[in-house]
Amino acid sequence: MLARQRMIDTIRGVYELYGFSPLETPALEYLDVLSGSAGAEAQRQIFQATNPEGEELGLRFDLTVPLSRVVSQYPDLVFPFRRYQVSPVWRADKPEPGRYRQFTQFDIDSVGAESDVADTEILAAMCDTLEALQVGPYLVRFSSRKILDLLLDYAEIPQSGGPDLFRVLDKLDKIGLDKVKLELTAGYTDESGAPIQGLGLSGDSVEKIERFLAIKADSRSETLKQVRALFGGVDNADEEIDVIERISSHLEVLGYGSDRVMVDLSIARGLAYYTGPVFEAMLLDAPQFGSVFAGGRYDDLVKRFTGRSVPATGASIGVDRLLAALVDIDRIEQPKTTSQVLVTAMDESLMGEYLKITYELRRAGIRTEIHVGRPKRLGKQLQRADRLAIPYVVIMGSDEAERGVVTVKEMLVGRAKASEVSSHEEWKAGRFGQQEIARTELVKTLRQLLDG
Q1: Are 69 and 122 within one domain?
Q2: 131 and 177 co-located in one domain
Q3: Same domain, 204 and 322
Q4: Is residue 67 within 8 Å of 111, Cβ to Cβ?
Q5: Domain tally for the chain?
Q6: How far apart, in whole angstroms, are the C-alpha atoms of residue 153 and residue 1?
C-alpha cells in the first residue's frame, strides 16, 4: 500500500502539472448508464445489483462512462473540462498476474476538446508520467480507430463487422498473429479446451488485414508513408492519416521521438466507444503485463446520454497492473513503514521525556513513532526497527538523561557491519552507526541525517 500510494501521488503530481483537476463519481451507476456503452465483452463483465426500490444497478467497469454521464448531467461545466480521477472499478474477469476483478484506474480526460492538440497532450502526459515513475524503458504506441475503419473498406468488410474485428485485433499482443488469423476465420480451441468462435472472414480479407498489420518502421513518418501507400485507393484515407501525422509532428516539436512514442497500426483497444486516436503504453522490461496505460478519443460517448456530440479524449493507468509489473522487475521501492525514526522506551520514569522527544520530532516534520508497549529490553525494540527498515533509532536511558544527551543509532550502518563482526563482544564494543549528541541538538542532527 505504501508503494502504491507513493505511485499514485507521483501520477497526481504530473496530472496537476498539466492542469487537470480531481473528480469523484459513485461506484454504482444505473445499469442502463453502463449498458451498451463499451461493447459486448464489457457488458458481460458488469457486476449487477438491485437496490431496495427494485432499480437495476451496476458497478462501474471504468471511469470514462461515469465521466460522460456527469458531463451530460451538468451542462454548465466549463469546457474543455479537464479532470483526473483515481478510483476502483470492477470487472467480472478471469484473474491473472496484474489483472484483478477489482482494480484501481487513474484517468485523465479532456472533454469538449476537438483539437488533435488535446490528443497530443494525453500522449505527452503518458510519457511524462512513466518518466516520473522511473519505470525504465517503455514504449507508447498509438494509432486511430478511423484508420481501422479504412482497413474495413480496404479488406472489404462491412462497417457493422468493425467491433468484432477490432476486438480480435486487440488480442494480437496476447495471443499472437496465428491465433488472431484463426479467430478471424474458422475459430479454434484454446488451451483450456474452450471453443473460440471465428468471424468467418474470407482468406482474401485476412490476407489484406495481415498486410496492414505487417506495416512496421523505425520512425513514425515512415510508418505513415507506408499506410498512405497501402490505402491509396480508399476514400478519405489521406484525411484520417493527416490527423495522426499532425499528432506525430506535435510530438516531434515537444521532443517525444519515435523511440518513446511509435505509430503502431495494430492498436485497436477493446472498448467499443473509441472514435479516433487510440493509445497504449507498455514496459519493455515487463511485456508480459501488456498495456499499463491506455486510452483514446471517444467523441460520441456523451452524445449517447444527451443527443449532442461532445468531443473527448483521455487515458487511464491501471494502477494495480503497473504496480505488479514494477514489483516484478524490481523497479519500485516497497517500504514497510512510514516511520523515519523510532524513539525507544526503556525506563518507565522517563516516559514523559520519550513523549516530549517524539512530539518535538513530529512537529519538525520528521515521521516518528514511539515504542508504545511497556518499557522493555532495547534489543527487542531495535529488532522491530530493523524488520521495518526504520532508518534511525533514538535511545535514552537514565544515564543519558542525567547527562543531557541521547544516542542516535543509524540502522543501515549496523546492518552493513553485521556481516563483518565475528563476536558479540566485538559488536557491543563497536557501537556501529551510533553517535551520542546533546539532547538539545537532536532535531537538528536528525534533520541533517535525513536530508543527506
Answers
A1: yes
A2: no
A3: no
A4: yes
A5: 3
A6: 48
The answer to whether position 278 is within a domain reads no
* The residue type at 10: T
The one-letter amino acid code at 72 reads: S
CATH of the domain at 223: 3.30.930.10
In sequence order, what are the beta bridge partners of 110? 82, 313
220 in the same domain as 157: yes
Q: 165-174 burial, b for 16+ CB within 10 Å, e for fewer?
A: bbbbbbebbe
Instruction: Answer whether 420's CB lies under 8 Å from 367's CB.
Output: no
Q: In what order do the strands lie in the sheet with 28-30?
A: 28-30, 56-59, 48-50
Which CATH number goes with the domain that contains 420? 3.40.50.800
Answer for the pair 55, 30: CB distance below 8 angstroms, yes or no.
Answer: yes
Provide the whole-model pTM.
0.88
Look at residues 335, 360, 377 and tell me which one is the last residue of a structural domain. 335
* Residues 1, 127 within the same domain: yes
The whole-angstrom separation of Cα 184 and Cα 164 is 9
Which residue in the block uniquely carries the three cell numbers 517503455? Answer: 138
* Local confidence pLDDT in tens for the 452 residues of the chain: 999 999 999 999 999 999 999 999 999 999 999 987 666 677 889 999 999 999 999 999 999 999 999 999 998 999 999 999 999 999 998 888 778 999 999 999 999 999 999 999 999 999 999 999 999 999 999 999 999 999 999 999 998 998 899 889 988 988 999 999 999 999 999 988 999 999 999 999 999 999 999 999 999 999 999 999 999 889 989 999 999 999 999 999 999 999 999 999 989 887 778 999 999 999 999 999 999 999 999 999 999 888 888 999 999 999 999 999 999 999 999 999 999 999 999 999 999 999 999 999 999 999 999 999 888 789 999 999 999 999 999 999 999 999 999 999 999 886 655 455 444 454 445 566 899 999 999 999 999 999 98
168: cell is 480480435
Q: 115 and 149 share a domain?
A: no
Q: b or e along 409-444 (b: 16 or more beta carbons within 10 Å of the residue's beta carbon)?
A: bbbeebeeeeeeeeeeeeeeeeebbeeeeebeebee
Structural contact between residues 302 and 312, judged by C-beta atoms closer than 8 angstroms: yes
Residue 186 lies inside a defined structural domain of this protein: yes
Residue 185: inside a domain, yes or no? yes
Whether residue 169 sits in one domain with residue 58: no
- The answer to whether residues 96 and 129 touch, using CB atoms and an 8 Å cutoff, is no
Give the other-Cβ count within 10 Å of 182's Cβ.
17
From CA 173, how far away is CA 292, in angstroms rounded?
Answer: 13
In a domain, 430, yes or no: yes
Range(s) of the domain holding residue 79? 1-136+284-335
Domain identity same for 55 and 68: yes
